[in-house]
Amino acid sequence: MFRVAHLLPLLFVTACSIATGLGSSTPSALSGGAAAHREPDGRVAYPGADLLTARRDPCTPARNHCLRPEAWFVGDPFHDDLAREGKVFQARPVFGFDDAWWTWQYAAEALPGPAYRTAPATAALAAGDLVIWFDDDYDHFPATEHEAQTSRHWMMGYVGAVDGAHVRTVGGRDVDLDRARAVVETR
Predict the structure, then answer these.
(1) Domain map of the chain by residue range?
(2) Among the four residues 19, 63, 132, 136, which has the most C-beta atoms within 10 Å?
(3) Contact 73, 94 (CB under 8 A)
(4) Is-contact 49 31, C-beta < 8 A?
(5) What Å distances lie between residue 175 and 20, 47, 85, CA to CA?
(6) What global pTM score does this model have?
């Protein structure tokens, strides 16, 4: 069932896209201004300046979990049928370049398959929505911009229910809503 509240994350990401140039050939000012490119030796360089490794402000939803505007996620691997039955999968942060998805770590080409653009989740999530969340027993959020883009602590699965500040996945996993990201676009 469609609700207007489903549009809020999309409006947030759209506003960020307009402000940062996401989806265009214009480099993002928020990530240092440089677009993804191929180095003279053939390696792919991720968009923007070096990823920040120093701890600064917490990587909360208000700071977009410290993800750069160019960040998308792919399943590693992702099987939609198994996810709908309750299995969760690792989600890898990636960026698009040369009609492929590349990981931020080592700029290695990622697995093929759908990629998901996300925004911080809200209580508008509903049963059946695909959700991506940061899953670390020690840190509630990514500690740094570098960790947000390169961590293997991002997971994905389907929402079974939303209860206030928590999401329960189809498989029964409880996730704090402030750790979660709603899928707003799929490619």
Answers:
(1) 4-186
(2) 132
(3) yes
(4) yes
(5) 29, 30, 17
(6) 0.78
Residue 77: asked if its preceding bond is cis (omega within 30°), the reply is yes
- CA dihedral for 171, 175, 179, 184, sign (positive or negative): positive
Q: Are the C-beta atoms of residues 123 and 116 closer than 8 Å to each other?
A: no
In 3D space, the residue among 90, 119, 103, 113 whose CA is nearest the CA of residue 16 turns out to be 119
- CA distances (Å), origin 12, targets 55, 94, 121, 140, 159: 25, 20, 11, 23, 21
Average pLDDT, 10 consecutive residues per value, the chain (187 residues): 41 38 38 75 79 79 94 87 91 91 80 90 96 89 91 94 95 95 96
Backbone angles phi, psi at 33, to 5 degrees: 90, -15
**Across the strands, what pairs with 183?**
118
Cα–Cα distances (Å) from 96 to 84, 137, 166, in that order, read 26, 30, 31
What confidence tens digit (pLDDT) does each residue in 8-39 have?
A: 443 343 343 333 333 333 344 444 567 888 88
Listing DSSP states for 80-121 in one string gives HHHHHTT--EEEEEEEEETTEEEESSTT-B---S-EEEEEE-
